[in-house]
Fold this protein.
Amino acid sequence: MSDTCDAVVIGAGIVGAATAAALASDGLRVTVVESSVVGGGATAAGMGHIVVMDDSEAQFALTRYSRDLWNAMQTPPQVEFERRGTLWVAADEEELAEVWRKAEFYAARGVRAEILDARALADAEPNLRPGLAGALLVPDDIVIYAPCAARWLIEQSSATLRAGAVKAIDANGVVLSDGTRMAAGVIVCAAGSWATALVPGLVIRPRKGHLAITERYPGFVRHQLVELGYLKSAHGSADESVAFNVQPRATGQLLIGSSRQFGADHSEVDAPLLARMLARAIEYMPRLAKLSVIRTWTGFRAATPDRLPIIGRSPERPNVYLATGHEGLGITTSLGTARLLADLIAGRQPAIDPAPYQPCPSRFKFA
Amino acid sequence: MPVQIQIRVNGRTVRVPPGTTVAAAVMRTGESAFRRSVTGEPRGPLCGMGICFECRVTLDGVPHTRSCQTLCVGGMEVQTDAQP
């Protein structure tokens, strides 16, 4: 049996779904191949936080471009789109200095942000512990429910979804594990951590993360809350880390993160690490301790050595395009990744410089 | 006659013997809508053993407390019919 289309997208996570939709709107006949559930991999292990980041200019450019694309998008109710805004919480004076630096960085680049002092922060989020130094409010950041967003992105497009596991990519298309050949001129590998099995030479490490969700407590938290120590102390490149990260869901539930862990090879919940993650959250929000968590789960994010996603044409295989390595920012950067890739495939000039995300061997080395 | 415990359900004083669950005390007031479902339907105790979560009430300000798994303690404040 054989199928023909213009483009095969491997993986129906948020990045694959967005890319399939972008290529379909360019008039390509697109098939998305998914071996499990749509949006069931790293997409379901994310918080659905769409956030402008500033670790590097390249990260800023892609996250800002993508967030603005999300804000311009009309989404149906099941996507649970809410412009909650991010509060980057500063615990002490040192972190407050980081608030000022961050505010300046965003102001210089036209991103709306507002500094809250200790009192304004306490008014904005009464359930935070007293004595925090302040925060940076980025009001245009968003929260969505990413697995439903992935499904919707495919459904609202002309792309076809197909169940199957891609076993190999060759010069003519892909081969599924049941032997089916799918012929296509363009192959997009958006398989997250699993991309390395299909594209030799890629270096991606699966980085495990834990999440917990509570019962419904409407109004308990109003913004997406993230500790500013997030980068400084927590989620650098340590093998195991936790950070305070709490988000209000449209249902009134609270989604609690986050943990990052290299070297874990199974998806079971790691109870001691989960306990550390929840203890960190309770440190910032003592009243969380009285609430009920109803579900905990994990997932693997695709981490690259330089912490930037891999977006662009494979240097070895001219028919293969890569869209992976988004680690914890795949929900945010999905729409930007999709637009960038569609522009490259169509030969248009992308809106942002694609160079920092291009696959090239010099990027693929972990220290 | 043993000592009675006094709690308040929706602002009303209820006296029950020691060892009484909050669920039983609420039922004694005649209240059957312990909470509302997401779609607004009334819900009350079903399994009585902590599995179904239908008997949740707001107890001393904490929502989603299972009333069938909690024994009455003097001075408790119980609020029913919370939504969601």
Observations:
- The first strand of chain B starts at residue 5 and ends at 9.
- The mean pLDDT of chain B is 93.
- The CA atoms of residues 2 and 71 of chain B lie 16 Å apart.
- Chain B is about 10% helix and 30% strand.
